[in-house]
């Protein structure tokens, strides 16, 4: 599935007042070019250096702050950088939907390597990850837009989130 198609499918499943969080990388480039921005919601984006993985903490923080579902759009590079923060969402039963676009690379870094180093090597591609198997519960995986719609639309309803005791 192309990133543009995936973002359109996600956008069609979002509630109008959703909070969507993304970050640096190809996944965010697709989210900006083919916006998954809800009409009455919020779109939080970190660009520039240091933004990879930002969406995990920001999406979890948005769910903590509002008690409403947030939607995290990240690439696999961002997941490798900060994806273990998923445990915070699980631990506190937060309403966060994580969407990880897997291209087995820090792909925005691969092109400059190819241009500057004559494509002799890369430090920015890696073995295929199996992110789905590392998360608790039902995590849909699809490469076809038709199969993604039911999985995404089933997660539309927000629920109240318990706020952790701050003592």
UniProtKB/TrEMBL annotation:
Basic residues composition-biased segments: 130-149
Xref: Pfam families: TPP_enzyme_C (PF02775)
InterPro entries, A to Z: THDP-binding, TPP_enz, TPP_enzyme_TPP-bd
Thiamine pyrophosphate enzyme TPP-binding domain segment(s): 24-125
Region of interest: Disordered: 130-167
Domain of life: Bacteria
Family: Belongs to the TPP enzyme family.
Protein name: Thiamine pyrophosphate-dependent acetolactate synthase large subunit-like protein
Lineage: Bacteria, Bacillati, Actinomycetota, Actinomycetes, Kitasatosporales
């Amino acid at each position: 599935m192309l990133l543009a198609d995936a973002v359109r499918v996600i956008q069609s499943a979002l509630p109008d007042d959703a909070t969507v969080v993304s970050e640096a990388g190809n996944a965010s480039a697709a989210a900006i070019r083919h916006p998954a921005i809800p009409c009455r919601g919020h779109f939080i984006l970190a660009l520039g250096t240091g933004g990879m993985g930002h969406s995990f903490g920001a999406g979890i923080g948005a769910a903590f702050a509002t008690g409403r579902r947030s939607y995290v759009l990240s690439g696999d590079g961002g997941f490798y950088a900060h994806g273990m923060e998923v445990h915070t969402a699980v631990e506190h039963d937060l309403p966060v939907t994580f969407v990880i676009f897997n291209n087995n690379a820090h792909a925005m870094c691969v092109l400059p390597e190819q241009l500057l180093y004559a494509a002799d090597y890369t430090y920015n591609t890696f073995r295929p990850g199996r992110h789905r198997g590392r998360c608790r519960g039902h995590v849909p995986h699809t490469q076809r837009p038709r199969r993604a719609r039911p999985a995404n639309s089933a997660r539309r309803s927000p629920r109240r989130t318990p706020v952790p005791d701050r003592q």
